[in-house]
Design a protein that fits this description.
The protein is an alpha+beta fold. Helix content is 39%, strand content 24%.
Amino acid sequence: MRFVEGLGLLVERHGSEFLGTEAVVGVLDAEGVFSGRPALRTVFRMAVNSRCVARLVESGLWDENVESMIEKFIIHTGFQSGLVRFVFNGVAVALGYDVPGECSAEGDSRDTDECIIAEPSERWDVAYGEDKNAWSSVGSPSRRAAFLTSVIEIEREIEPLLGITVRAVSCNKVGERYFELTFELARVEPRATGALYYAVYDREGVIITTALAGALCLEDASRLPLSVRIVCEPERVARVLLFWQS
């Protein structure tokens, strides 16, 4: 299924606001939209996590503010502008906006391959996993952290039962054999408690490491900022899953 088609179906099923939620990447994965297109998935996930997709939905049209947001996104992430614009144009087309640019609704209806060749400027999908020597050339520490942030997934199924949520999750530091996550645990129900764990997966889906990320106890404040250092080689990481245990 083509990218813009998958987005359009989600708008029909769940409404336009769904495109800006964390769940959208998982649903598109299940539909096979990102099959063979890891660079497309990386850029779209980062656009969702940064709330840029949500801001595009909220804007109601394509205007100068949207253009400015996209330019800032390109500068901040270092992703190649062709793929970034393809992602945002695809979202806008699915929302029914009038969209400028080369990858219009007509272009996407033919095939996305002509735009997929415009991958992130340093080939995240190749560099971080298959060739360990390539990790040093991926870019600055901030760009490595941005990539690791983009592969974080949060399992929220039991959050309503626990009365706790996790917010503002990101990677803020990357070393040769570790990376650090920062996040905030928050109660949505009085006296709720719970423990948040992480599991790190490689490109084959094998778990590299898993451990406690943080916990909210009875004596803790209702909002608890935390950080955790995860010891593993960052170039092996393809997915970081955060999940709750009561």
